[in-house]
Specification:
This protein is α+β, with helices and mostly antiparallel strands. The protein has one domain (2-77). The chain is 45% helix and 22% strand. It has three helices and three strands. The protein has helices at residues 2-19, 37-45, 69-77; strands spanning 25-31, 51-57, 62-65. The protein has a three-stranded mixed sheet with strand order 1-2-3. Strand 1 (25-31), helix 2 and strand 2 form a beta-alpha-beta unit. The N and C termini lie far apart (29 Å).
Length: 80
């Protein structure tokens, strides 16, 4: 499922961050159209403090992020 692929991707990002001594990272996923509600809920509930996640609807320009400080910061920097 897409949710499982996202989990695997986050694990790989975490591994690369540790390997390269990176303190934080962003995962920004753009899409033309709406995201699946299960993915939206999963991102909203995700509490990784060192990885910000954003789902970006390119049609509506809506940006949905996880609730970490790094995730919320994406909205202040990512502009259309």
């Amino acid at each position: 499922s897409k949710k499982e692929k996202l989990k695997i991707l986050l694990i790989e990002i975490s591994k690369m961050m540790k390997k390269n001594n990176v303190k934080w990272s962003w995962l920004i996923i753009p899409k033309e159209g709406e995201f699946n509600q299960r993915i939206i809920k999963w991102v909203e509930k995700n509490d990784l403090s060192n990885i910000g996640i954003a789902l970006v609807n390119l049609n509506t320009k809506n940006i949905l992020t996880n609730n970490s400080v790094i995730g919320r910061k994406i909205k202040t920097i990512l502009k259309f």
